[in-house]
Structure formats: structure tokens, C-alpha cells
Thymidylate synthase
Amino acid sequence: MIWFMKEVMIMKQYLDLCQYVLEKGYKKADRTGIGTVSTFGYQMRFDLQKGFPILTTKKVNFASIVHELLWFIAGDTNIEYLVKNNVRIWNEWPYKKFMESKKYQNETLEEFVEKIKTDHQFALEFGDLGPVYGRQWRNFNGVDQLQKLIENLKNNPFSRRHILSAWNPAEIKNMALPPCHTLIQFYVSDDKKLSCQLYQRSADIFLGVPFNIASYALLTIMLAQICGYQLGEFIHTLGDAHIYSNHFSQINEQLSRKPKSLPILVINKNITNLFNFKFEDFKLEQYDPYPLIRGQVAV
């Protein structure tokens, strides 16, 4: 196993984002009807050599982050795998579509999820999200972007074309949710450190952003290992950065908590192919967050 050394670092960048949007953001109507406080254009930087960037001011489900990322990497777009691994973050979108079908018989979300888990044919019919992230990563109009990215990182490290795009205009209409994290660029420095910058067009600060930070940091760490690089930075650039009006109390609760030091990520150093990683190859050590804070997802 390989250890990523920890310094006493905290996720102050995230709390600074929360405070900035609360103070500088504008009230803005949105697609969901809930309403937000929003600002446009914000950037955070995380040094991946100084600890794994996961929130400590509330518990973030690391297992869900790993499973979702492996689901993306596999090119999967059906929630069946996620549901069977107790990952709930995508359930509301296919459930909303199911409610509009003739087969809907007033099933609750929980009953719908149980059907996805236990009935493969039902999952095939109602569990797919359309050509979302994993599909675009692995089959963007016939191009396996992820495979090409790996080849280019290994063979042409100083290229300026290390890009993954999830935004495919031709297929947006078929997606349950157009991608929020849309463009990912990787960069190899002259001292062989791998960095990643994510452009996120829409950023749900309470629910989505903590997952996104940890997920793309993890992807960067995995790619660094299989391509033979040291760790650089994860740079998170936000377009519409917003706090939903029903998340204000949760954000303020986090701001009242003193952040703790970051945990240590341990991954299996024997894995040399990105597509061979399994859930069991990852472990988070010394993660001691404050308790979970719940919030309702806006669909």
C-alpha cells in the first residue's frame, strides 16, 4: 500500500467559499424553484501532497465517492451498481422519470430504489440516466477520452491537450441531468507533478462541491500512480457557485465548526492500470469529521 503523507492542513478553502457566497452572492431564481444565493466565478486550490481534501466540518461519505468514481471510469450510466453499493446520490433523477411513466403505481422513492436493487429488468428500464459522465468519458461520439488521456499523459506529458469533456451538446437532451462538472484538464510540471483543474459550470456548494473536490482529487491521485507522476494540485474553478435557500442553516452550522486536520489516503500501489482499481484498493485513515449534516437535493 502507498501512503500519501499528511501535514496539519484543513479545508479552509471550502469555508472561505461558503462565507464569500453568503456575503457577496445575489439572490437568484433557479430551475428547481427553491432559490439560491449565487455568485459567478470562484477558484480554490488544494495541494495534494498536504493531505486528502475531504471536509471535516461535516462527514462526507468516502465510500460513495469511490463507488461513484469507479462507476464513471467504467462508463456506466445506470444507477443499479450505485444502489447495490448503498450510494444514493443519483436516485432522485430516474425516480422523477419513473413517476411520469405508465408503470408508476405511487411507489415511494425508497420502494423505487428497492426495485432497482432487486429487479435487474426493472433497473434496465428505469435506472439509466442517459449518456451522462461515464458515457462521455468512455464514448464521446465514438472516442474513449479516458483511454486517450492516459496514453497522452504517459507519452506526451507536456501537451496542453490533456482534456476530458463531459459536455456534449448533441446528447444533452438525452441526459437526466446535464453535467455540472464539465471540463477537466490535467497538467504535468517540469518536476513531474500531475495537477488537475476542473471547470464546474454549476456548483451546489453544500451537497455537490464537497463530493466534487474529493472525487477529482482521487482521480488525479489514481492517474498520477498509473502514469508514474508525483502529486501536484487540484484546482477547482466554479461558474455559478450557489447555496440553495434550504441549505443556509447547514452551511452556517459548518462555519461554526473548527476544521480538523486532513486524513491520509491509502491506495494499493500494485495497481498500474486505471481500469483495474476496485473499491477495496482505497482506504481513508485518520478521518475524524464532525457528524453528518443532512440536506435535501434539488431536482
The radius of gyration is 19 Å. Residues 119 and 154 are 42 Å apart (CA to CA). Residues 1-8 have pLDDT under 50 and may be disordered.
